[in-house]
Structures are given as C-alpha cells and as structure tokens.
C-alpha cells in the first residue's frame, strides 16, 4: 500500500496509525495445516498396483483355501438323528404326548465309525429349528442373578419364568427353564467309553459369570416343566451343562458340546449309545441329532471357508489376468492430458 | 413486505404521473417491486429488505402521509415521566442473552428440537421406552441423543454466559443525563425515553437520540457509524436551528412525535413541536446507538428509542439461512431411504405375521416363545396382545432397530464438516486482503458446497471489479480537453500547499495534474479560459457534501487536510480541485471557505440540493463575496444534458460531448458540470420555494425535488470531469479463469454503456474476438424485435462453431458472443414475456454486460436466471445497491470494500477482493463439493451396510428383531466407530492440489456435471451396499453353520467386520493421506476393537468374554479376511475399470499431478481452447 495515498475514506481522522494496523493484522498465520498443505501420500490405482494386489490376494487365498479344505476333510464327523427313531413306532402319531408322558424313554443307537477318529472326540447334540435367538427367549434371563447370590430377587427380566409359588426361581428365565436334558452313554464292544464332561463350558463363564455360591433354588417347580432339572447342591459355576446351554446359540440350527471322549476310535468300531430321549422338540418340529466329531485347527467339518477362499482367490487370479491382457491390449498413459474432456474432440462425446 | 413494495410502487406511479416523469420510471419501479417480491418469496431474509427498501422509498412515504397518531410514539422532551406514562417504552437496558438460569433448560431444548433430526431421534427413543418395544436398554437408546443435546447445550450455555457478561458491561456504562437542570452520570440501563443526554467527543451513544444541540454553532455533529454498518467515514448530523440555543431552558415544552421503532437505519421520520412551531425531522437529525461522536466536542440529544427498540438492536439478526443444492438433493435420497426403511420393516412384519400364523397352535408351549404364563394360578398370556398388535409392535420395533437407515448423524456430521471447511476457507492465506486487513468471512454455514457448482456469476462493477478508489484523470473545460496528467509522462504529483495562520495546509492526497491546466488555474480569472477554469474548479470544490478535516502531522507546522464524505467520486474531485489551487478548508451548513490560489474566500451556501438517484445530479447555490448568486450543478451526462441550455455555446457543448465519449470509452467515470448565474428575482423566487419545501410537513422530499428541478435548468455547461476507477488487482485473470471454468459472468453496472464496455475490455470480460450484441431499445416492441434478431444472430454465430469444433480439436475456433444490454431495455424486458427471450439469448452468450441498471433491476436479472434454470447463481457486490442481488442469488458474496458493509451484512460470504473468487470457487468450492458429495454417499452406505447386516440376521431369528450385535455396539456404531473418519475426510481430503485446480479452471466442470453426487452414484452405492452387507453377513453365517457358536461371538465378528469394512471402503476412496487421515481411519478401527473388548469384559452382559473366545479361533480371522476381500473386490474392480478406461478429468489431473505431465502439454492446449466444451443441455 502506497503510504502517500492511504484510502481516505477508511482512515478516520486521527485514527490511522500504521504500526497499530500492522499489529492488528488479521493475516492468517501460515501453517501447513491451515493452508491444507500437510504432506500427503496420494496413491493412485495404477494397473501395476491393481494387478499385483489381485495377484497377491490370489497367492494368499488359494493356499489358505486348500489348507482349509484339507483341514475340513480330515475332520471325521458322525451325525445321528434320533428324535423320530427313538420314539416307539406306536407312539409316532403323537410324539408330543409320548414325550410328555412319564415313563422310561431309554433308547439305544448303534453308530459305526467310518474312519479312524483321533482323541479327543467331541460329542455334541445338535438341535434344528430351535430358535435360541428368539427375542422373547434371549431376553429371558438374569445375568445378575446368575452371578451373585445377593441378586436372587433380580428376576424382572425373566418373565414368565420369574417366580414359582411366589419365590424367585434360580436360575430364572426361559433359557434355564428349557435346559436340554437328553443324556447319552457310550460303550464300545460292551465296554463303557469314558465321557469327560468337565471343561465343556467357557472358563470365563465358570469363573466370572456363574457364581460359585449361587445354588439352584425353586427350579423347575412350576406346573409346566420345560426341560432338565439341576442338582441344587452344586453351585451354578459347576453346572456345566447349564452354562453351555445358557450360551445361547446365534442360529436356529446349533450344536452344543455334551462331552469329550478321551479315546481314539477305530474305523468300523460300533459305538452303542444309550440315550434318554426326554427333551421335547416335537412340539415345534425340532430335530435332535447326536454328533461325534474330531477337531482340526479350523474347528469342525465345514467346507465353506475353503471353497470361499478358493473362489475368491481364483476370481482374483482371473481378474489379474484380465487386467494384464487389457493393459497390454489397450493401455492408457496415466495423466495424459489429451484425455481431458476439454482436450478431447467434442464430436467424440 | 411484498404488499408493501407494491403499495409503494403504486403510490409512486400515481405520483409520478402527476409530475409527468417519463413513464419508464414508474415501469421501472413496478418491475422492481415484482422482482423483489420474487426474491422475497425465498423466505427468511425478507425482513432485510426493510432497511434498504425503506431507504429507497423514504421520500415517497414521507411525502405521502403524515404519521398517524396510533403509529406514532410521543416523546416529551426532558419529561421522561410523562413520556412513559401512557405506553411503557423500552428502557435502555439491553439483553442479547437468550436464556436465564431458569429458562435455559426448556428454551434450549425447545430450540434444539427445531431440527427434524433430533425429533426423529426423540421419537425413536420414546418408542423404545414402551415396554412392548424395548429393543435396546434405556441407557443405550437415549445415550446418543443425550450426548448430542448435552454438547450443544454446553456450547449454548457458554455462549450465553459470554453474552450475559457483555450485556452487563454494556448496561453499566455511564452517560451524562440531564436531571434537575444539570447533567449527571447515569447508568445506560437506567436511561429512559424522553431524557436529555449529553455525549462528549469519542463517546459511544447510549441510545437513539434526536439531536438538539452541539458544540458547533450551526448544530453540526459528526458521527462514525462503524459499529452500525461498518462504514468508517464520518457522517454529518444536524440539530435543528430552533433547538440549538435552548438546551437547558424550557425544553420540557417540546414534543417529538416519531414513528414506531423500526430497523431502518437510514430513515427516520418525525415531527417536533417547539414553542408552538412544528419542525420536521429526518434521518439527518437522529444519532443512533452504537455510533461514536467524532470531531465534535459535545452533542445533546433527547432519547427517542432506547434499549431493544434502538435501530442497532433491531438490526442485529443472524446471517441468512439457506439450504445448499446438495442438501436439497440429498433430502430426495433421504426420502428414498425412508421408503427403503419402511420396506424392510414391512418385510419383517409380514414374515413375522406369517410365522405367528403358522405356529399359532404351538405358541403357548414352544420353549422359546412360551405365550402362557403359568406362574400365577390363572394362566394368562404373557407379553402377547393378539396377532394384530404383535405385527404392529414388530413393525415399530424394526423401525427402532433399523433407525440408522436414515443417517441422522449425517446432519450433525455435515454441520461439523462445514465448520471445518469454513475454518480452512477463513484461514486461507490466499484469500487474505492486505489492503483492508480482512480475512475471508463465512457468514452462512450451510452452503459451502454450493460454491463448487456455480454456473452464473453476477458481479457488480464499481468496487467489485474496480477498487472504488477514484482518481481524477482528465477534465474538459469549455470545450478544451486537459488530459495531460498522463501516467506515462511522469507528470508531477501536485499537492498544492497553502499557508493559513502560519500553518501549512496540504491535502492528504496528491493528484496528478495537467501542467497546462495548472498554469491556467494559477493564472487567475483574467483570461477567458481562466474564468471558466475558475468556475469549473470552484464548482468541484463547492458542489459536494464533503467535509474537510484538518489533521495534525508529525511536523507541527504542516497540517493535512482530509476530506471526508460518503462518495469517493466527490472526494476525488475535491482533492483534484485542491491540487489545482481551490482548496476547500471549511464547511458548515451556512458557508464554505475555499482557499483559491492562496487567498481565502468565503462563500455562503444558500441552498443545497443533495444528490438523488432519480435526478442523478446535485446542485449548490452559492452566494459570492460580490453578492452575486450562482447555482452550480454537477451530475451524470444523461440527466445533465437535458437541463442544459442548448441555444448558446453549441460548439462547447458538442466538444464536451465528444470528450465525454472518449473518456467513457477509456473506462473513465464522467460527470458534467454546469452553472448559471441567478438574478435577484430568480433567487428570491427559488428561496421562497426552497424555504417552503424544506419546512413542509407534507411531501417534503417531492417538493424539494420540484424546487431542485426548477433551479437546475437552462444551465450553461462549463465542462466535464473524468475519474478513473482502477481495476482491482488480478481481475482480468480472475474473469478469464471463471470463463474457462465455464462459469457465465454477468456484469451489472450503473455505469454508462461506453464505460461499461471499456471496463469489459480491460477486465478481459470482452475480447476482440468476441461478437458483441448490443440492445438499446426504448419501447417494448423495439425490445422484442431486437431480442429476436439477436437470438437469430447469436444462433448463427454459435451454430457454425459447433460444426467447426467437430473438425478438429486444435483448430476449433469459437466465436463467443457478448451481450450488452442497458437498463432502459431491461425495464421493458423484466417481468414481461420478454424475459424468456432474454434468457434464451443469454444462454447463447458467454458474457452478458448490463449497464445503467438500477439496484432492484439487479435482483430482477438474478431472479430471471434463477427462475429458469436449476444452475447455481452467485452474486458478488460491495455496495448497498447490491444487497437485493446478493440476497436473491443462491450464493451471495460481499466485498468488504469502500462502500460500507451493507453488502457484507447481507452476504453469505465476504472477502476483500474480487480475485479471491477464483480460489474460493475453483479451489475451496471444488473441494467442498467433492468432499460433501462423497461424504453424503458414504454416510448412506455406511449406515445401510450396518442396517442390512442387522436385517439379514433378523431373517434367522423368527423375525423378532434380535440383534446378534451387542446393543451398545449398534448405538456406538455411527457415533464412535465410524463417525470420525468421515468427518476428517469431509474436511481434509483433497482430490487435487490448489495449484492444479487454479491452473486448470476447467476442472470446475465436475461440479456442474454433478459428478460426485447423482442418482447413478446413489443407486450404484446402494447395490454395492447390498453386496457388501451380504458378504459380511453370509460368510460368517455359512462358516459357523452347525457349530457351537453363540450369538455375542458372531455378533462381535459382524461388528468388527462392518467397522473394518466401512473404514477400508473409505480408505479406498481417500485421495490424499495425511497423518490426520491415517490417525482417523486406523484410530477408529482400534477404538472399535477397544470398545468391543470393554463391552465384552462386563460380566453381567450375556456376551461376556465372547470376543476373546471368538478371536482365539482361526475361523474368526479367516472370516474377517474373507469378508473384507470379498466385499471390496467388486468395488475395486469397478473403480479401477472406470478410472482407467473412462477417466474423469479429475482422475487424469490427479495422475498428471503425480507424474508431472500436465504442465508441459496442458497449458498450451488450454490457451488454444479458452472456452470449454459446449454446454451440455
């Protein structure tokens, strides 16, 4: 600004003091941040980058897929559905009535081992069409009550299984009430197979979620019996079947660990299962299955992940090749200004 | 307002026809009023028209009607008790604070819930409180809303606390008030209407007062209104002669009858009765709260408006609120999303209904349903209200679960992002104006992204394109041109000095002088030409409203003369006169003192007719020391030549006209000076009429105008002055950039056509290659004909261009068309069917130049374009005359320049220089648009992915709205897990550097073509969303099929997958990775993991320790990896194909930026093809 010619209208009489003006300068302080000039990395999807990343994906995915498939194939899994078979022929017309009627419901199943099974062999029961994730069901529990003795009265969330005869139920709620109560016994060649039922639940649940001084009380005393009952002299933290059951399943078809057989099973071994068929899944067409399975590093028998990885890996390999071919056939120089819309032939649009 | 405007114009029309003013004026005003009405329709800003509209029409209102008693307030001077007995007028305490301690909670909540978003939140939260619908726990459902409300409330409370504090300081200031015959200190808040207050120099006025007396014997007071309208020059206010002497005695007899408080700071209308005489009071008799008294030892006034009723308080309203185009578009998509939400909810309810129907016999006993409650003796339904209700509840519950489908957090994010964007715009060093020491200002926070889609720029000329620093350049006196002050010749800078009372007086500004003229001026009145030169400069020195101030300098013997006035043109002329030896030293209302070549002369100012925009001239009647009386008139050539006596000195007249033409074609602003000697009888006749008119109570302004036009007649032309208004720095380059960006620039100016065209050339608005179409018509029919011809011509010109473009890119020659149209033609075009023709014509033209336009016509033109296209309009101006245009356009920009701050007050953005428009639009506008557009799409995607994952799961839970994902996680998802990166990207991501964007304005086309946010992108995003959510949901579902997995574990997997997915999706689209972006993206993922871990570490939640169990298995990690790759591959493929085989301009520029190819090729190409591709329409 020329000091001879200050803007006459803005300089009110006597108030123009150049040094003051400089002191009050509102010029924004320069910093790379405020000027949006922070150092930045600006990656661009170049063909090379894209092709190599697709290649990388396929290189990683295909071996994982193969490994997963192998793992899944190495798992030996025997599934035996027994819900219908274990009902006498005569009672099959009214299964619900049969299951609700008192009496001995022992049933024997013979299972032939198809392949050598290494220990430990996990024993699951599988229920189908049982919505443990139903809203009414999931909510019907009291975690406070399970954890500490003092909260025994905290049953408001447990309706309609909150109280029985005016006394709070421990453990309350539909989940506990519907505790699965079929039992299994295994023998091979007439010799009892030892079934380890310790440690089938989560350690964290045993130690922190289910109280060591919380004992079942008033449980399964109502007019309608939902499932198994509990030994009222054992604290909840030791009722592992309950703890497993209370880990509600995410999906309507689920398995729950029943126990572990700490013994190898040979191919063509015949396992005799003596089971008490007590649990009522008939009222909602639920299926019951018994599952014997070994475990791999990936868990149980499930080909899905292997197939998924192979598919994705294969697809990426294919895409990488397509891109390579396209790149060789019809390359475009990156940043070529002749592609800019205002440089392109307008007639071409 | 609308009705008001039409009433005004109606009255004006009847009035003007009586006075036989040429009919086009009344038409003009009629069109204006309608133009204004169309703009006023746009909502909240109506009120702002008040001040300006009032100022324009003040004369008519005043003249037409007296204030009726019910519309008046009566102020008994020095009798506050009587004044206030009938009506309780506001006390002088002010209260800008909104809340008190008690009202804070209800009022603040009430204001916050004005936002639809919050109401939606609230309704959902309330629904969730119903026991039948309790999807989330109480805490989880209220938390987000409570959080937002709390943050806003704390912010509001803090701001209000500061307002309280400043109110307290303000209210406790002291003023001198007349009590019992003497002036005593009184707190501001205790001042009452009717009290007499004395203000000393440099004090701030405590309330609006009518001036009664000042230290100046003639009753003049100078005030600075910088707090009111930002204008720093001094304004003169007058006390009535009748009240001057009677400050203390019998003032109590006075009565002021004034209009009710209003917000018009430029108008005041009142009568005062003193000693039985009625005096009329106008805007020049009132001094307003907030102003400062300057150069006047003291002033005494009577308070008429106090406290909240003062004009400054009535005017303190916030910035106008507008909604951006992007946001309007977005709302359409929000409605689509609502439909989508309703569809999802309906699907769930219908499926739930079917399920209930199928299992209706078993519901009582299914273990996971258990309809019956057997615990009581009488067995009842538990939590079951019948089939219909269950479906209804399911529907509402699904709305609660899927609520974030409507991205309510988006509104909050958008506000934050805009604040961030504004932060960077304000702090951009490139938009700081050194000269006025002003930063860029964001006054409206809602339309940042509109800056990236501007198609039409309407610009004022004076003060916007030019600096509005007037410099006297040439004079034509008595037919002789003196343009010797040629800058090339290094002519001397003359600062004429005179010695008065031993002190040297020197004008503050030196002027380049023509040596020949200087010689003549110094030669005295002996020669014939010398006489005319004397008259000419005397006219320049006297015929104005400039007030000289003598300012001390460091050298005690030298004093500077500083000329203060409202018009920069007048300042320039007075400085010029001073340079030639006619130095104005003193001005009072009765006389002026001019130092003529070192000899002090006193002239009596017998009368002054101030400048008026209708007359476009002003006159002063001077009584010379030798008792002769002359009238000097100065005005625009159009209006001057009609009052000049053409019978004599015809050759002088013709020569002057010739000079005027050549001046204006050089881009100079011209004024014609004329004079006439008055005979005694003439003077007496005029004096009587003038006295009568100026004391008239009815129709004063009109009477005065009539008197003025009677005296301003049969003038003898002395000469003409030419003033240069320099173009601002960088204007031609800026205009060129805007044109290259395919923005149509319309310049609307009040200047003459020749001046406008020449400015057009110098600002590169017009180029020599351009074909000009000029429309000057005097009737509607002529207008129609010339418009139709012009359209044919324009089509012919643009027609072949298209075909020549086809032939080859480099050889394409476009003949751009420039349209020049004048205000008279616009009178016939605006608000008639011809508007359509003009619009058609204008759409063929790359440049439109409107000259001689009235302020309201400017708004009319903006409205014309705005009505007919969906393209965004931007108006930029600096003066009060641009306010209507600024408010009418989609984006209004005020230049904080020489003409005060009214334009800034009305604008959405304000800046110091026109050239900042380039960084503002091309850089910040582009960024804002890109960022905001992407952010909206991303937010839709982000929320929809999550909702769909929830939805898929609902299909596996008997349609009962169970969520595997923990309720806290679903609440925190859009609050903590994913919100920060989108805001950071919305503020910081740069697709291209500032340099590239300003170098290649064509890149701005991305905003015009709506490249970032359009329906195609929306639908593609939605399809992608469905795929991604499906991948995220079904991969774990299938991998964990028939396994022991529990709900919380798989839920944690879904949570992590969704969060990582959306963050990586965002990462894929980020262009520039700074450390902030890295921190936001990876920080969010880490924060999510921490949150999930913390939630799973609470033993009383069902999902206790789930994440640790899940993460201990390989399946978990393989699922996560598979989800991310499978979900993102399609997008990556499409993105790569699109970028590689049909790259957008931005993509190429980005590559070029990285590989440095644009510089060598690009610029050459651009110069070859200055005009972008033809408009795609």
From TrEMBL, chain A:
Amino acid composition bias (Low complexity), ranges on this chain: 1-21
Gene Ontology cellular component annotations, sorted alphabetically: endoplasmic reticulum; Golgi apparatus; plasma membrane
Localization: Membrane
Source organism superkingdom: Eukaryota
Residues that span the membrane, as ranges: 49-71, 307-329
Positions of the UniProt region annotated as Disordered: 1-32, 142-165
Key word 4Fe-4S present: no
Pfam families: CDC50
Membrane listed as a keyword: yes
Key words, A-Z: Membrane, Transmembrane, Transmembrane helix
Membrane topology annotation: Multi-pass membrane protein
Similarity section: Belongs to the CDC50/LEM3 family.
Name of the protein: ALA-interacting subunit
Originating organism: Trapa incisa
UniProtKB/TrEMBL annotation, chain B:
Broad class of where this protein is predominantly found: membrane
Topological relation to the membrane, as annotated: Multi-pass membrane protein
Entry's EC annotation: 7.6.2.1
Residues that bind ATP: 460-462, 570, 611, 634, 669, 749-751, 852, 858, 881-882
Transmembrane regions listed in the UniProt entry: 116-134, 140-158, 332-356, 391-412, 940-965, 971-988, 1018-1041, 1053-1072, 1079-1101, 1107-1129
Active-site residues from the entry: 460
Positions of Mg(2+) binding: 460, 462, 878, 882
GO CC terms: endoplasmic reticulum; plasma membrane
Reaction(s) catalysed (UniProt annotation): ATP + H2O + phospholipidSide 1 = ADP + phosphate + phospholipidSide 2
Keywords: ATP-binding, Magnesium, Membrane, Metal-binding, Nucleotide-binding, Translocase, Transmembrane, Transmembrane helix
InterPro entries recorded: ATPase_P-typ_cyto_dom_N, ATPase_P-typ_P_site, ATPase_P-typ_TM_dom_sf, ATPase_P-typ_transduc_dom_A_sf, HAD-like_sf, HAD_sf, P-type_ATPase_IV, P-type_ATPase_N
SUPFAM superfamilies: Calcium ATPase, transduction domain A, Calcium ATPase, transmembrane domain M, HAD-like, Metal cation-transporting ATPase, ATP-binding domain N
Domain called P-type ATPase C-terminal: residue spans: 904-1144
Family according to the record: Belongs to the cation transport ATPase (P-type) (TC 3.A.3) family. Type IV subfamily.
Protein name: Phospholipid-transporting ATPase
Taxonomic placement: Eukaryota, Viridiplantae, Streptophyta, Embryophyta, Tracheophyta
């Amino acid at each position: 600004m020329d000091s001879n010619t200050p803007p006459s209208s803005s300089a009110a009489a006597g108030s123009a003091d150049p040094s003051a003006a400089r002191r009050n300068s509102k010029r924004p302080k320069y910093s790379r941040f405020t000027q949006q000039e922070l150092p930045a990395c600006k990656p661009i999807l170049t063909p090379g980058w894209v092709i190599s990343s697709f290649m990388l994906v396929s290189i990683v995915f295909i071996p994982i897929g193969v490994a997963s498939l192998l793992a899944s194939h190495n798992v030996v899994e025997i599934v035996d559905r027994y819900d219908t078979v274990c009902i006498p022929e005569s009672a099959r017309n009214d299964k619900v009535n049969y299951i609700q009627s008192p009496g001995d419901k022992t049933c024997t199943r013979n299972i032939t081992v198809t392949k050598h099974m290494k220990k430990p062999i996990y024993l699951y029961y599988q229920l189908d069409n049982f919505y443990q994730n139903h809203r009414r069901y999931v909510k019907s529990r009291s975690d406070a009550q399970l954890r500490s003795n003092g909260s025994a009265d905290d049953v408001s969330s447990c309706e309609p299984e909150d109280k029985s005869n005016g006394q709070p139920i421990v453990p309350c709620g539909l989940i506990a009430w519907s505790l699965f109560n079929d039992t299994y016994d295994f023998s091979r060649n007439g010799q009892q197979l030892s079934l380890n039922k310790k440690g089938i639940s989560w350690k964290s649940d045993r130690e922190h979620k289910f109280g060591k001084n919380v004992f079942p009380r008033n449980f399964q005393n109502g007019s309608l019996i939902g499932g198994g009952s509990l030994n009222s002299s054992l604290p909840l933290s030791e009722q592992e079947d309950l703890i497993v059951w209370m880990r509600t399943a995410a999906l309507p078809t689920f398995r729950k660990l029943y126990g572990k057989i700490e013994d190898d099973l040979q191919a063509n071994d015949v396992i005799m299962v003596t089971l008490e068929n007590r649990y009522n899944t008939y009222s909602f067409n639920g299926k019951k299955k018994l599952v014997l399975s070994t475990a791999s590093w990936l868990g149980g028998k499930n080909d899905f992940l292997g197939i998924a990885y192979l598919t994705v890996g294969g697809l990426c390999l294919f895409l990488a090749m397509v891109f390579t071919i396209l790149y060789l056939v019809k390359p475009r120089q990156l940043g070529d200004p002749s592609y800019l819309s205002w440089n392109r032939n307008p007639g071409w649009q | 307002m609308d009705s008001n405007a039409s009433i005004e114009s109606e009255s004006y029309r009847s009035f003007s026809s009586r006075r036989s003013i040429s009919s086009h004026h009344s038409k003009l005003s009629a069109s204006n009023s309608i133009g204004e009405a169309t703009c006023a329709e746009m909502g909240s800003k109506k009120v702002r028209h008040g001040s300006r509209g009032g100022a324009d029409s003040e004369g008519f209102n005043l003249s037409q009607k007296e204030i009726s008693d019910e519309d008046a307030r009566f102020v008994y001077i020095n009798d506050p008790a009587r004044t206030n007995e009938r009506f309780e007028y506001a006390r002088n305490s002010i209260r800008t604070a909104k809340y008190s301690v008690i009202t804070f909670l209800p009022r603040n909540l009430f204001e916050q819930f004005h936002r639809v978003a919050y109401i939606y939140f609230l309704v959902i939260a309330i629904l969730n409180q119903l026991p039948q619908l309790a999807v989330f726990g109480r805490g989880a459902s209220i938390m987000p809303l409570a959080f937002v409300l709390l943050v806003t409330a704390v912010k509001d409370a803090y701001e209000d606390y500061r307002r309280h504090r400043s109110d307290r300081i303000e209210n406790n200031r002291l003023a001198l008030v007349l009590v019992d015959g003497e002036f005593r200190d009184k707190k501001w808040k205790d001042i009452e209407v009717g009290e007499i207050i004395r203000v000393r120099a440099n004090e701030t006025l405590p309330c609006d007062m009518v001036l009664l007396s000042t230290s100046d014997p003639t009753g003049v007071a100078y005030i600075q209104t910088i707090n009111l309208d930002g204008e720093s020059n001094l304004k003169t206010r007058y006390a009535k002669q009748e009240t001057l002497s009677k400050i203390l005695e019998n003032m109590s007899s006075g009565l002021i009858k004034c209009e009710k408080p209003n917000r018009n700071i430029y108008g005041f209308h009142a009568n005062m009765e003193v000693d039985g005489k009625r005096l009329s009071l106008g805007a020049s008799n009132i001094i307003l709260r907030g102003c400062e008294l300057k150069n006047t030892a003291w002033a005494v006034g009577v308070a008429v408006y106090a406290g909240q009723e003062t004009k400054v308080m009535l005017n303190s309203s916030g910035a106008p609120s507008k909604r951006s185009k992007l946001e309007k578009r977005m709302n359409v998509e929000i409605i689509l999303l609502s439909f989508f939400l309703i569809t999802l909810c309906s699907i769930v309810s219908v499926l739930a209904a079917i399920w209930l129907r199928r299992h209706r016999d078993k519901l009582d006993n299914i273990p996971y349903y258990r309809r019956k409650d057997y615990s009581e003796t009488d067995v009842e339904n538990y939590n079951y209200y019948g089939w219909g209700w269950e479906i209804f509840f399911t529907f509402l519950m699904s709305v609660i679960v899927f609520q974030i489908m409507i991205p309510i957090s988006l509104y909050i994010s958008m506000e934050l992002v805009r604040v961030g964007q504004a932060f960077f715009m304000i702090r951009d060093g490139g938009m700081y104006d050194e000269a006025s020491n002003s930063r860029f200002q964001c006054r409206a926070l809602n339309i940042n992204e509109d800056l990236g889609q501007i198609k039409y720029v309407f610009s004022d000329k004076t003060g916007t394109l030019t600096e509005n620093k007037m410099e006297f350049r040439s004079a034509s006196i008595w037919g002789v041109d003196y343009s010797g002050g040629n800058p090339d010749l290094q002519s001397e800078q003359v600062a004429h000095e005179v010695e008065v009372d031993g002190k040297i007086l020197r004008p503050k500004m030196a002027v380049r002088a023509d040596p020949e003229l200087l010689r003549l001026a110094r030669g005295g009145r002996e020669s014939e030409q010398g006489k005319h030169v004397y008259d000419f400069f005397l006219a320049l020195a006297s015929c104005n409203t400039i007030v000289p101030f003598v300012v001390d300098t460091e050298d005690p013997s030298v004093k500077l003369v500083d000329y203060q006035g409202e018009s920069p043109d007048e300042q320039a002329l007075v400085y010029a006169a001073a340079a030639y030896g006619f130095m104005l030293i003193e001005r009072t209302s009765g006389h002026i003192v001019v130092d003529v070549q070192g000899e002090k002369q006193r002239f009596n100012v017998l009368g002054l007719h101030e400048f008026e925009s209708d007359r476009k001239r002003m006159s002063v009647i001077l009584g010379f020391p030798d008792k002769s009386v002359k009238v000097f008139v100065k005005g625009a050539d159009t209006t001057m030549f009609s009052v000049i006596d053409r019978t004599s000195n015809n050759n002088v007249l013709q020569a002057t006209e010739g000079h005027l033409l050549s001046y204006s074609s050089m881009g100079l602003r011209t004024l014609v000076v004329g004079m006439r000697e008055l005979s005694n009888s003439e003077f007496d006749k005029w004096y009587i009429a003038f006295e009568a008119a100026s004391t008239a109570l009815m129709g004063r302004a009109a009477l005065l105008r009539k008197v003025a036009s009677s005296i301003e007649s049969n003038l003898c032309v002395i000469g003409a002055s030419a003033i240069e208004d320099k173009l601002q720095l960088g204007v031609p380059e800026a205009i060129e950039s805007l044109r290259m960006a395919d923005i149509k620039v319309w310049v609307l100016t009040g200047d003459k056509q020749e001046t406008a065209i020449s400015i057009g050339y110098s600002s590169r608005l017009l180029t020599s290659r351009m074909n000009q179409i000029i429309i000057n018509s005097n009737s509607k029919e002529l207008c129609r004909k010339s418009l139709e011809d012009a359209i044919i011509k324009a089509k012919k010109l643009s027609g072949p261009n298209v075909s020549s473009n086809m032939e080859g890119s480099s050889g394409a020659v476009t003949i751009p068309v420039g349209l020049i149209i004048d205000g008279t033609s616009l009178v016939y075009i605006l608000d008639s069917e011809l508007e359509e023709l003009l619009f058609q014509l204008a759409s063929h033209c790359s440049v439109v130049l409107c000259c001689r336009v009235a302020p309201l016509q400017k708004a009319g033109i903006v409205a014309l374009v705005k009505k007919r296209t969906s393209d965004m309009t931007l108006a930029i101006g600096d003066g009060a005359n641009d306010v209507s245009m600024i408010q009418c356009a989609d984006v209004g920009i005020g230049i904080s320049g020489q003409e005060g701050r009214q334009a800034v007050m009305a604008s959405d953005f304000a800046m110091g220089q026109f050239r900042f428009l380039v960084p503002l639009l091309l850089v910040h506008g582009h960024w804002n648009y890109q960022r905001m557009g992407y952010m909206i799409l991303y937010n839709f995607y982000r929320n929809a992915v999550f909702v769909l994952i929830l939805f898929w799961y609902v299909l596996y839970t008997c349609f009962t709205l169970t969520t595997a994902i923990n309720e806290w996680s679903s609440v925190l998802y859009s609050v903590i897990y994913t919100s920060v990166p989108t805001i950071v990207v919305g503020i910081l991501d740069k697709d291209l550097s500032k340099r590239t964007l300003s170098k290649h304005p064509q890149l701005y086309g991305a905003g015009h073509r709506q490249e970032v946010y359009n329906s195609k992108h929306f639908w593609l995003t939605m399809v992608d969303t469905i795929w991604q959510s499906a991948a995220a949901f079904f991969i774990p579902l299938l991998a964990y099929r028939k396994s022991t997995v529990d709900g919380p574990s798989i839920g944690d997997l879904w949570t992590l997958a969704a969060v990582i997915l959306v963050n990586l999706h965002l990462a894929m689209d980020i262009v520039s990775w700074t450390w902030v972006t890295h921190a936001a993206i990876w920080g969010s993922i880490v924060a999510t993991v921490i949150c999930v871990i913390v939630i799973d570490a609470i033993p009383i939640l069902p999902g206790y320790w789930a994440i640790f169990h899940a993460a201990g298995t390989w399946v978990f990690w393989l699922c996560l990896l598979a989800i991310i790759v499978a979900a993102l591959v399609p997008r990556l493929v499409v993105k790569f194909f699109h970028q590689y085989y049909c790259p957008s301009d931005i993509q190429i520029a980005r590559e070029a930026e990285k590989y440095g190819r644009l510089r060598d090729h690009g610029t050459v190409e651009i110069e070859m093809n200055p005009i972008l591709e033809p408009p795609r329409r």
